[in-house]
Amino acid sequence: MRILVVEDDKDLNRQLVEALTEAGYAVDSATDGEEGHFLGDTEPYDAVVLDIGLPQMDGISVLESWREEGRNMPVLLLTARDRWSDKVAGIDAGADDYVAKPFHMEEVLARVRALLRRAAGHASSEMECGPVRLDTRSSRVTVDGTYVKLTSHEFRLLSYLMHHQGKVVSRTELVEHLYDQDFDRDSNTIEVFVGRLRKKLGTDIIETVRGLGYSINAPAPNASAAAD
Q1: Is 58 buried (19+), middle (13-18) or exposed (0-12) by CB count in 10 A?
Q2: Which residues pair with 133 in a beta bridge?
Q3: According to the UniProt record, which residues make up the DNA-binding region (predicted)?
Q4: Which residues contact 124 (CB under 8 A, 6 or more apart)?
Q5: Are 40 and 4 in contact (CB under 8 A)?
Q6: pLDDT of residue 182
Q7: CATH class of 126-216
Q8: Which CATH code for domain 2-120?
Q9: Beta bridge partners of 79
Q10: pTM exceeding 0.85
Q11: Is-contact 13 144, C-beta < 8 A?
């Protein structure tokens, strides 16, 4: 999953990027409204963490412009303002949630997880597909209850597919959502990560859809099980 952070406080921006990266996301960042607007308008983000008080272009204007242009990614607003009218203005502009400064980083992470779950139609922080379970809170993956150690890229790939369970996801879409802006993108690496995932999970839940991409689905019961 790929996240955009738009925050003009460089220290806070760095802390947010570090926390989100450690949580398993690919993260891009901007420090003013114009750059943030451009990135959100040209890159396919799964969620945005957006400060209201930005130079060049304020956060409300950035958000209103995105929504007018049909950009529907979930947006979490950051605000240092206590007035309820500012929070209402943000929600009316199209924000999905907000958190007031100062905040605990865990709260931001929890709200981002919730936005991603809701956007994908999931209610729980734990997602299941056959014997595979992925906990978005702990970034922990188990198969039949046994912990499986994944690299950061393997986890991002599995998480994106699990969030879009039952849908065919193209290689291009995976590349756009798994890597940050500075990563040397190569769609061939997706095949490598899929192969590694299949081997580590030891279960046939990732299907290659020829000419289209990949889909993750719970394995069908075998014939003998069906007969029973």
Answers
A1: middle
A2: 128, 142
A3: 124-218
A4: 117
A5: yes
A6: 66
A7: mainly alpha
A8: 3.40.50.2300
A9: 100
A10: no
A11: no
